[in-house]
Specification:
467 residues; alpha+beta; 8-stranded mixed sheet; 6-stranded antiparallel sheet; 13 helices; 14 strands
């Protein structure tokens, strides 16, 4: 049993998938073992309480074992007074019932999810057949003894007429009736025993023997009832212990599922933007594609990478790239820049992936690009291999989305991306080369040199600027 998260989420999955749900048969098997190993358990089940009645989650009764998950069972009349509390997920007292299922002691224990919401109840019915048998025998024995006492009193009354005989018998008879009238009330019966002791009958004959036997019988009766009550309490404590252990196991399983969910979500966030991750999680299989009106795209590339890598081992190349890209990734995380991907030694990022045109993405990207130059300078201080990068930036509208079903990636497309790539390839080492569109949105914040006309494939001559 079990929890958005969580016990409630698991119970919803059980209702949706029925007995084929993961973990269902294992939990049911454990409940069956628990019932079989505790002889006093008559029924063991898990219900969700709703307005229309009890909805089955688990039921170990063999005769009703074919209940489908979420099958409806109408409320037992015994529980009707407690339905409001059950619907609110409250604890209700242990109940006795004597309906068509037999004489049972029933305990309902609420199971809560991590948000403190009651998702279901574990119900345990303890058979009271032994107690009923004992009570019948006890009442029968008491009645027989009372009849014997009455017969003795009548017989002795015929033989003895003195007040020493009549008064003791009348006292025993009176206290016997009083004792019988307590009907299992231990405190009242103990008071009767104390009153019987106060009679202190010492006739030295059959009357005294009758008194002693009656006193012993009343004391034994009270002690037997106390023992029976204690036995019931012990059984209840045992069931509470079982319930606590079961609840602990459910909580542990829920916690494990929560950790796995967090791992999956964190892994997805490392691959996709948060909004896209949420959309894919809520709508698996949905095509993710969006138009954005004003996005700033950056490309970087290591100058002379082919020549540099030719003099290095494979491990040295990978370590160098990993160190550089890790510096870039950490800066992107700090400054709110969306990394798109790396292709070999090239690094691609974007800012302003929103539906708002005035999003400040161009200014953020220029700050980011300047920071990348600082990162390269820091990298070169500790590296035997000194590197330089070119940086190209362009701003405009584009399309973004998720490609593929397995090993999918988040990518961007359009002329804006192509021009940003041309800014990088036509740029100069350790300089930031921007298009006219980026220049217009950032010229009030940063100082640029004079414009330079460059030939861009498919675009002709374009004005560009160096920061």
């Amino acid at each position: 049993m079990a929890s958005a998260s969580k016990k409630n989420e698991k119970s919803l999955r059980y209702k949706a998938e029925g007995r084929t749900a993961s973990g269902y048969e294992e939990t049911l098997s454990r409940l069956n073992n628990l019932q079989k190993n505790v002889p006093d358990i008559e029924y063991l089940y898990v219900y969700q309480i709703r307005e229309d009645g009890c909805h089955v989650i688990f039921d170990t009764d063999e005769e009703s074992g074919d209940y489908a998950v979420d099958a409806l069972i109408e409320f037992d009349p015994t529980f009707l007074p407690y339905v409001p509390d059950l619907l609110e997920g409250k604890q209700i007292p242990v109940l006795e019932s004597n309906d068509s299922y037999g004489w049972l002691l029933t305990h309902y224990h609420p199971i809560f999810d991590s948000n403190g919401k009651c998702v279901c109840y574990v119900g345990v019915d303890i058979s009271m057949v032994l107690l009923r048998t004992y009570r019948v025998k006890f009442l029968f024995r008491t009645i027989i003894l009372s009849l014997v006492a009455v017969i003795l009193i009548v017989g002795l009354g015929l033989w003895i007429s003195t007040k020493f005989l009549v008064n003791p018998i009348n006292g025993i008879s009176r206290h016997a009736i009083d004792f019988m009238g307590k009907n299992g009330n231990v405190d009242g019966m103990n008071a009767c025993v104390s009153a019987i002791k106060n009679l202190d009958i010492r006739t030295g004959d059959e009357v005294e023997n009758l008194y002693a036997s009656f006193l012993k019988m009343t004391e034994n009766t009270v002690q037997n009832i106390i023992d029976i009550n204690k036995m019931q309490e012990d059984r209840i404590q045992i069931m509470q212990k079982y319930n606590e252990e079961l609840e602990k196991k459910v909580e542990e399983r829920t916690y494990e599922l929560k950790l796995e969910k967090e791992k999956s979500e964190n892994l997805l966030l490392n691959i996709l933007p948060k909004e896209v991750s949420v959309e894919l999680t809520e709508h698996p299989g949905k095509t993710i594609a969006q138009d954005f009106p004003n996005v700033t795209v950056l490309f970087t590339d290591i100058v002379g990478f082919t020549k540099i890598s030719g003099d290095m081992t494979a491990d040295e190349v990978v370590n160098m790239l990993n160190k550089m890209v890790s510096l870039f990734d950490e800066r992107a995380r700090r400054e709110g820049i969306e990394k798109i991907k790396t292709i070999g030694d090239a690094y691609m990022a974007a800012a302003g992936l929103t539906k708002d045109y005035d999003n400040g993405g161009a200014v953020k990207m220029i700050d980011f690009a300047r920071g990348l130059l600082d990162d390269i300078n820091s990298f070169n201080k500790d590296s035997a291999v000194k590197i330089q990068i070119r940086l190209g930036i362009n701003t405009g509208n584009l399309v973004a989305g998720v490609i593929g079903k397995t090993k999918f990636i988040y990518d961007i497309w359009g002329d804006t991306v192509n021009v940003a790539s041309r800014m990088e390839s036509t740029g100069e080492p350790m300089k930031i080369h921007v298009s006219e569109e980026t220049y217009e949105q950032t010229k009030e914040k940063f100082a640029y040199g004079n414009s330079i006309d460059i030939e861009v494939k498919g675009k002709g001559l374009m004005k560009t600027y160096f920061l």
